[in-house]
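pasting for ref
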Amino acid sequence: MPILLDAAYTLILPAEPVGRVYTRHLEATTGLAVNPEDMQAAFQHAFTAANPPDYTLHSSGNMAEREWWRNLVSQVLCELASDEITALDPDTFELFFDSLYTHFADPAAWSLYPETIEFLDAASDLGPLAVVSNFDDRLTPILDGLGLTPFFDHIFTSADACARKPDHALFTLALEHLGHPPRKTFHCGDSFEADYQGASALGIHAFHLQRPRHTLFDFLAYRRTHGT
C-alpha cells in the first residue's frame, strides 16, 4: 500500500525561524531593522490569510507558485505597517524577495525532524513512498540535499498539479502515477485542512500529524494497524 507524505513540517522544517530569516535578509538588502518576533507574527498572519495561487494566470505551475510567494512577502511587509518598509522601491523589493526565495531553495535552510530517516527506512518496507506537497521545483533539490530522495518513488508538488491541497488534483496526480486506489493508500501531513481533510475526502487513509503531540512513528503505528 503506497504512503503519501507531506514535506514541510512533516519530514522537514526550516533550520531557523522564518521571522529571523526574513529580518536578516531585509536588513542585508535594505538596511532596515525589524524585530524578528514582529516579522514572525506578520508572516504567520499573511500566510494564514493568503488565497491559493491562480495558476491560470501563468505559463507554468512553478511561475504561479513563485508569484504567490512574491505577493506573500509583499503582504508580510505591509503587515509590519512601517512607512519606510512599505515605501521600498520595486527594485529593492525584488532584491529582498530574490534573496529569500534563493535562501529557501538551499537544503542548508532546512532541517530534518529527529525521526525522519529512521521513519522513512521503516516505512519503505511497507510500500512505495511519495511526497505530496504544496511546493514548487525547489523541493526535489532540497530533499536530495538532505539525503531523502532515495526513499521516494515520486515527488509531487502543487506546481506539478497546478493545484494545492486540499484540492483533489494533487492527490489524484499521485494516485494515478502510483496506480493504486484511494482506499489502498495512506497519507500523513501536518495540516488538518490540506492534508487530513483533503486526503480523507478522496477516501485515502489520512493521519493528521500534530507535533509535538505526535511524531512520524505515531503515523507508522497507524499505518501498521490499518493496513491490511
